[in-house]
Amino acid sequence: MGQCALETASWRVARGGTGCALWAAMSTHPTQSRARRSGFFGHHLVGRVGELVAALWLILLGYRVLARNTRHGGVELDILARRGDVLHVVEVKCRARRDGWAPGIAVGPAKRARLERGARATLAEAGRRRRGQPAAVHPFASVSFDVVEVWLWPPRLRHHVGAFRCDER
């Protein structure tokens, strides 16, 4: 007693009841604190939706999505896609609404270094999978580091192909 029926239903869904997580994330009682409303489902769900939108966008542009949310070299890579003989390592940054800051600003030098480390591990693994060839050989002619910025409201997407280059060492 004392709980709104909508709140009860949304938390039942969040705990694994019938329905979907999207409903659980969006249906909160107006008297709940901001921290509770934007808790686990808030930013995680926004990120998941943004990655799905970005993957669909890449498919529409003719990319072949090889993997999503994969780990290589201890680094999570949002999307690995292929277009021709180029491997695209795509970092997706998503915001629920436009508040003046571009999401891509969050891809700083530390994040770029992690993405580079993940790409090197991905290429090494791809080379190991090719039978009868040395580990240094991989099926890609080059690597492109892309950033896809997604805003959910108002809906907007910006794709930066070759957003940065890695240092050749």
Distance between the termini: 64 Å
How many structural domains does the protein architecture include?
Answer: 2
Report the order of strands and helices: HHHHEEEHEE
Strand content: 25-35%
Q: What is the fold-level CATH name, i.e. the topology of the largest domain? A: Trna Endonuclease, Chain: A, domain 1
Name the CATH architecture of the largest domain: 3-Layer(aba) Sandwich
Overall CATH class of the largest domain: Alpha Beta
Category from helices, strands and their pairing: alpha+beta
> How helical, in percent, are the residues?
25-40%
Annotation field: number of helices? 5
Strand arrangement within the widest β-sheet reads: 1-2-3-4-5
